[in-house]
Backbone:
């Protein structure tokens, strides 16, 4: 297939474009930064330079291209936001950016459309020990500051399902793609943690593998949970990563103190307790995580 990947230079975009090429697909990489064109070309990806938030410019950039699929992996999350306002641009990308990419899909003739979603759409709250499946409510408002985030997650999925072959991938929290950036902060104990709820996680390589599987085998109009086998707390993951890197354990802060500096992090990693089932992805996509838990994944990330 010919595949247009929006976000080809991002945390998941890099392993995704590599895996697509390994599977024999021709890949176009959408970037708004002309300076990234060389890096994309060096990876065998044909650059398409345009801002996904500028519909006219985007449609001009793809005019004349032909593709079978568009994959939406755009976020504005160079790092984890500390405050709810830090999600605003990503929310726009999930709402307006998805609409623009669907218009681009029509121009290039792509019938398949895959969008990045996230398991947090099930709700930023304590779900107890219940394991959620794709049939559970998604993106429902809670009457709190998270409502814009939930609405944006719901919007990207609902829009994707309007495509002839639309699919949503509800990823766990990513890790493994930003180890080099985190290492100096972990070494200096500048990434404090606190006790909190468990969350689904997925190594970026496993997320990329699931995305290729969904592109090739996923059913139209379906959402798939993509996570490893062992939910964990943020403290457990960062402590394991620090150990794998030879760094000291992260400092532990009380939740009330961390909330002052990073209210969004507390809402996500302390107040949310969430487990998801991945049987649907395993059965329909024939996908299994290469890293069954964060333990194997952080060890590989530290080596790589």
Residues:
């Amino acid at each position: 297939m010919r595949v247009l990947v929006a976000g080809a230079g991002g945390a998941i975009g890099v392993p995704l474009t590599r895996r697509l090429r390994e599977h024999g697909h021709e890949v176009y990489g959408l970037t708004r930064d002309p300076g990234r064109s060389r890096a994309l070309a060096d990876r065998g990806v044909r650059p398409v330079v345009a801002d996904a938030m500028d519909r006219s410019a985007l449609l001009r950039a793809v005019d004349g291209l032909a593709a079978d699929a568009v994959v939406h992996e755009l976020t504005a999350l160079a790092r984890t936001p500390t405050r709810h306002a830090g999600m605003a641009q990503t929310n726009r990308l999930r709402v307006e950016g998805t609409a623009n990419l669907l218009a681009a899909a029509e121009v290039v003739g792509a019938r398949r459309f895959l969008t990045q979603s996230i398991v947090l759409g099930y709700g930023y709250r304590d779900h107890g020990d219940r394991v959620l499946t794709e049939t559970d409510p998604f993106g429902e408002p809670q009457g709190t500051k998270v409502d814009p985030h939930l609405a944006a997650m719901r919007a990207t999925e609902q829009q994707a399902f309007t495509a002839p072959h639309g699919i949503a991938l509800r990823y766990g929290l990513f890790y493994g793609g930003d180890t080099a950036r985190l290492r100096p902060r972990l070494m200096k104990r500048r990434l404090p943690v606190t006790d909190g709820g468990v969350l689904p996680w997925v190594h970026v390589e496993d997320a990329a593998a699931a995305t290729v599987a969904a592109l090739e085998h996923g059913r139209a109009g379906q959402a798939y949970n993509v996570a490893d086998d062992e939910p964990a707390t943020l403290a457990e993951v960062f402590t394991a990563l620090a150990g794998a890197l030879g760094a000291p354990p992260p400092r532990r802060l009380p939740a009330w103190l961390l909330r002052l500096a990073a209210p969004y992090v507390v809402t996500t990693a302390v107040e949310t307790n969430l487990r998801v089932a991945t049987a649907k992805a395993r059965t329909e996509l024939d996908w299994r995580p290469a890293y069954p838990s964060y333990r194997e994944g952080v060890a590989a990330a530290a080596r790589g």
Residues 2-178+201-228+276-290 form a domain with the Rossmann fold fold (CATH 3.40.50.720). The longest helix spans residues 88-108. The chain has one domain: 2-178+201-228+276-290.
